[in-house]
Specification:
single chain, alpha+beta, YefM-like fold
């Protein structure tokens, strides 16, 4: 939930401790105004770090949305490899199934260990 509060800086000055507490809730932020115009935004350090990280990812991977859509379409068409198949291709040996699934074992074993 994204809750935005817009208040004058003069009011924020009086309520800064309350504002600092409120922005700790996910999606909460305050827009502080000066002469009725937005001047600054107050949000938690965690929210700020998350936004910066998101921007960094989007800059590093500008085609991310297209890549995800393409991957979903390939998966829908059955054009994918399972993790087990990929590991077997890398030389791991599939062990017999157990009640809780199965395990993979490296094809190389140390002396005395299997």
């Amino acid at each position: 939930m994204n809750i935005k509060h817009t208040i004058p800086i003069s009011q924020a000055r009086k309520e800064i401790f309350s504002i600092a507490e409120q922005v700790q809730q996910p999606g909460q932020h305050f827009t502080l105004t000066e002469n009725g115009r937005p001047k600054i935004v107050v949000l938690s350090a965690l929210e700020f770090e998350s936004l910066v990280e998101t921007v960094d990812v989007l800059r590093a991977l500008p085609d991310l949305e297209d890549d995800i859509a393409e991957a979903k379409e390939e998966y829908r068409r059955g054009n994918h490899v399972t993790l087990d198949d990929m590991l077997v291709g890398e030389g791991y040996v599939k062990m017999k199934k157990r009640k809780k699934g199965h395990e993979l074992q490296s094809h190389s074993t140390k002396k005395g260990r299997r």
